[in-house]
Design goal:
The chain has one domain (4-87). It is 55% helix and 5% strand. It has helices at residues 11-21, 34-42, 52-66, 71-83, and strands spanning 4-5, 86-87. It has a two-stranded antiparallel sheet with strand order 1-2.
Length: 88
C-alpha cells in the first residue's frame, strides 16, 4: 500500500508526517529503506521541536545517509519531490 505525502515543507505536511511516524522508526516500519530517503529529500531541513517524531526520524535518516553514499540520491529525489506529490 502506497502512502502519499505532500507539502512536507509546510506545517500541515509535517503534521501529517508526524502523525504517520507515531510508533514507527522509519517510513516503512522498523527498517531504513529507500522510502525514507525519498521522504527525507522532500523535507526542507530539520523540523522544529513541535514535531518530535519527525525530528527523531529525520536525525536517524541523516545519520544513516552521512555514513553512506546515498547523498547524491537525496538531492535527486529532493528535486523530484519539489516537482510533484511524493508517493511512497
Amino acid at each position: 500500500m502506497a502512502v502519499t505525502f505532500s507539502d512536507l515543507h509546510t506545517e500541515g505536511g509535517l503534521k501529517a508526517l508526524e502523525a504517520f511516524l507515531a510508533g514507527k522508526s522509519y517510513i516503512s516500519g522498523d527498517k531504513f529503506t529507500k522510502d525514507d530517503v525519498r521522504v527525507y529529500a522532500a523535507v526542507h531541513g530539520v523540523p522544529g521541536d513541535s514535531f518530535p517524531n519527525v525530528c527523531k526520524w529525520y536525525n536517524s535518516v541523516s545519520s544513516k545517509l552521512a555514513s553512506s553514499r546515498l547523498m547524491g540520491l537525496v538531492s535527486w529525489w529532493g528535486f523530484l519531490a519539489s516537482q510533484e506529490r511524493l508517493l511512497v
